[in-house]
Structures are given as C-alpha cells and as structure tokens.
Amino acid sequence: MKRFMKWLSNSFAPAMKKIVGRPWISAVSTSMQKIIPFILAGSIIFLYGVVRDFVSVLPDIGIIADFTFGMIGLIIAFMLAHQVMINLHHDKSTINAGLVSIAIFLININPTIDEGIFTVEFGRLGPTGILVGILSALLTAAIFNLYGKLNLFEDSEIPDFVTEWINTIIPILVTVGLAVVIAFKLNIDIFDITEIVFSPLQSFAQTLPGFILVCLIPAMFYSIGISSWFFGSITTPIFLAGIAGNIALVEQGLAPTNIVTSETVFTAALITMGGMGATLGLNFLMLFSKSKKLKVLGKICIIPSFFNINEPVVFSTPVVMNPLLMLPMWINAIIGPIVIWLSMSSGFLNIPARMIQIGQIPAPFSSVMITEDMRAIIVYIILFFIYLAVWYPFFKVYEKQVLTEEKQAGVDDMPLSNPVTE
User: Which residues, at least 6 apart from 81, have a Cβ–Cβ distance to it below 8 Å?
Assistant: First the structure.
C-alpha cells in the first residue's frame, strides 16, 4: 500500500494535473463549468414544472428552457472557442473566435436555406448538438491559433487597425470557407457523423459497467486531489443526451430508459449522498468519534454534507491521499451505481425524466422529487446503511491512528488539518 500511495502521490497525480492543465484540455473542462448556469436556468424551469403539476393555474413558461438548456450546443460552441483563445493568450481573437464558432456550429447542424428561409431542426441546437458545438469550437480555435502564430504584418507600415482587420478577416474566411465546403459542397452532415461516432460511447455509458465507470473514475481522481470537473468534458454530453432522450420518450407517452444522467447521479443524491463518494456516512461517524479532531470536524462539515457539498470533509479529514479513506470512497462509488441500476432497471424505482441538475437539494427530498417516486426513501435508507457499513471499519482504523497521534502530540495542540501519516 505504501508503494502504491507513493506512486499515486509522486507520479500519477502530478502527471494527471499536468495533463488536465494543458490549454486545450483545460479549455474544454472550463467551458463545461461555464455552461452550468444555462443548464441550471433550464433546471429551474423544469423544477417549476414539477410545482405546476400540482398547481395547474400557474402559467406554462417551458419555452424559457428551450432558450437556455435547449440552446446548450450553440452556447458551448461560443464558450469553448472563446476559452481556448484565452488559454492560448490570443487575447485579440477571443470574441471573434467565439462568434465564428457559432457560425460554424450553425453550418454543421445541416440547415436548409430556401428563398431566404433558414430552417434547422431545433433539437440540434440543444444537448444533442453539444458534441457538434465542441468540434466546431475546436476547429475554429485551431485555425485562429495557427494563423495567430504566423504573426503576419507584424513589422509592416500598415496602420494597426487595418492590420487587426486583416488578421481577423483571413481566419474567418478560412474557417467558414472550410465548413461551407464540407457541409454544402461535399454534402457531409457533421451532426449525423458525430452521432454515429458518439453512439457507441453513449450506448456503453448506459450499461451497468459504463455507469460504474462514470461514477468511479471521478471519485478516484477526487480522492487524490484532482477536481472531477475535468471529467465533465466526457460525462456532460452523456448525461445531457441521456436526460434529453428521457424527456423526448415521456413526451411521446413512453417510459424513460436512460438511467445514466446527471439527475440520477447527482440530483437524486443517492449515489452522491453527502457528495461524491457518498461521504455522508463518514461525516456521520465523525460526529460520534472518540477523537477530538474528528468530532469537531464532523460538526463543522455536517451541514454542507446534508447539502451534498463534501469538499470540507474530503480535504480536512482528510480523505485526499489518505489510503484508509480513499478505498471506501471508491467502494461506495461502485456500490451506489449497482444498487441504483438494479432498482431502476427492475422497475422498483422510477428513472428520472425531468432535467433538474441542482445537486444541493438534501436527500431524500431530492430523491423523491427527481424520481417522482416515494420508494426513493426506501432506497435512500438502504444505501445510507450500506455506505455506513463500508466506511465503518476503515474509519475505526483511521480513528485509532488519529487518537494515537493526539495522545502523542497532546489533544489541545493537535491541528485540525493534521496530515495523514502512514
């Protein structure tokens, strides 16, 4: 174990931090975070829809969701191109690249233009078009970046404002021209190609092994101090496509089938009970610890834990880089998906079919709300005790270690953020 932890600490974690810090990868991760307000705006409208089901006199404002969450593909096209330009220090091209990326996205979703009427399938602007938005942004950013490196007219006598115009016009013409040739001259439908290529990944993600990996990988990275946000560049398209598919099925009078959605993983707060890795059980045990340090931390962290915010407990206990607490976090990230998969696939628990991605609603209230199923309370209770049983033996060993350290150092002198010793 010591050798494994040393490898994680000295080799794997630094290497991963270096990879996720690269400008292009970082831009994708950052852009996914920046579109969250638009997703949450749509979530609020869907949440309003839940209330409207019981208060029918309320007006229908669902069209707001169409122009927030329903435009997420278009929005990511701008956000990502803009962010890449920032990361690559092309400060003069940030807005222009974002706007061109929007044009490329609109070309790539294969519109028809007939006698001045622009027609496009509205659904392609939303979550099903998010990958097209990413590809459009990366193409635009790549061309703008390559042209920016040429430094044309840098030492010329042409006025600066004219130079700036030229250095904007050329990459615009090249980018849009390339997209036009591909879409309208070669008749290549980028949207359809993206769906075909992405389909196997989406299909695998909607299986039990895929579900486990979607939950386990971020938890593993989180336990070594690497933000799980970077993995959102992979999971966000999967989650959005999944919930969009469920919504469409329900609108057709059919039952939802996609279990792997953000609503299942986060909003219901069954898999992420207390936060990623189901740390509510750990926090609960800390409240009754014999260790002064752990008991105080438990009291400090319990309120955030109820709202599924576990950074305080993960970094202060600490769970990060602590082999005794990392392992139960990983185990829970496997058990949770298995229990939820069995519950939903068997029909015992409803599959979410509303797009509500607000993960800070305490369970089991959020569990019942998102599944529209009172049996979610039963699943919550079962999972809480399972998580608690997983945490217990590891916690007791760690508690004994902390008690020994407190005895040696003197309880009053024991720092709350004392690092783990092996």
Answer: 97, 98, 100, 101, 136, 137, 138, 140, 141, 144
Which string of b and e fits 167-194 if b means at least 16 CB within 10 Å? Answer: bbeebbeebbeebeebbeeeeeebbeeb
- Structural domain boundaries enclosing 367: 206-413
Tokens of 148: 């920016």
Bond into 362 cis (ω within 30): no
d(CA 85, CA 282): 42
Torsion angle, CA of 211/216/218/220, rounded to 10 degrees?
Answer: -170
CA 211 vs CA 202, 204, 206, 340, 391: distances in Å: 11, 8, 6, 10, 22
Helix (H) or strand (E) holding 202: helix 190-205
Residue 24 · residue 84 · CB < 8 Å: yes
Please name every residue paired with 112 in a beta bridge, in sequence order, or none if there are none.
119
Does 19 map to a domain?
no
- What are the E-state strand segments in 158-316? none
Residue appearing with tokens 């290549």: 188
The total of structural domains in the chain comes to 2
Residue 71 lies in a domain: yes
Confidence band (pLDDT; 50, 70, 90) for 52? confident
Q: Which two tokens stand for residue 380?
A: 């919550």
DSSP conformational letter for 70: G
Domain assignment of residue 374, yes or no: yes
Verify that 61 and 165 share a domain, yes or no.
yes
pTM score: 0.82
Residue type present at position 270:
L
Six-digit token pair at 392? Answer: 């217990």
Both 259 and 110 in a single domain?
no
Whether residues 184 and 96 share a domain: the answer is: yes
Same domain, 80 and 157: yes
DSSP per position, 90-150 = -GGGHHHHHHHHHHHHHHHT--EEETTEEE--GGGGTGGGHHHHHHHHHHHHHHHHHHHHH
Same domain flag for 266 and 332? yes
Cis peptide before 318 (omega within 30 of 0): yes
Q: Report pLDDT digits (tens) over 62-121.
A: 899 899 989 999 999 999 999 999 999 999 899 999 999 999 999 999 898 888 899 999
